[in-house]
Amino acid sequence: MQKPVQSFTRRRELEERARLMRAAPTWPEQVLFGAIRGKRLGVCVKRQVVLGRYIADFVVPSRKLVIEVDGPCHALQRSADARRDRALERLGYRVLRVSADDVCRRLEDVLVRVRAALGQ
Question: Which residues of 41-72 are buried (b: 16+ CB within 10 A; e: fewer)?
Answer without folding.
Answer: beeebebbbbbeebbbbbbbeebebbbbbbee
